[in-house]
Amino acid sequence: MLTRKMVALMGFVVAGATALPAQNNASINVTASVQQPITVTAGNPLAFGNVFPGKPATVAVGSANAGTFSVAGQASTPVSMTFVLPTNLTSGANNLPIGTWTGNENTTNAPTGTGFTPSASATAATLSATGALYVFLGATVTPAVAQVAGSYTGTVSMTVTY
Can you list the positions of beta strands (E) in the chain? Predict the structure, then answer.
């Protein structure tokens, strides 16, 4: 006959014979490196000065009248520049066509550097070791022979992204 002690002992033996599932775990580190945000600052306006009917006028990227922007961001990092450029300057209902756009970028704030076409879809550049980039814009206006006199204006926008 089985005694209570024997039944209890058999219960422990049966319970001990049951295999427990194998279990293990591992972990990984999760990291991120937050970069310095990009700051774009408008500098000099692109200024054609006095323009005469029928006479195209050009502002070169190396001239004092060139438009300028400065960029600050993460040091030595590639960026992409895009521009929204007007096709005309306007004075009321009158248009003064802009024929061509030119650009120059560098990391030393000098009017010479790497040339580019601002009307292209995107322009690649690299920020300096201190995180700086300077952009110079020039253009040519082509007034008609019967261009109406007036003060013509427009706006250029530049967007820079990592």
Answer: 39-42, 57-59, 67-72, 78-84, 88-91, 94-106, 114-116, 123-126, 132-141, 157-161
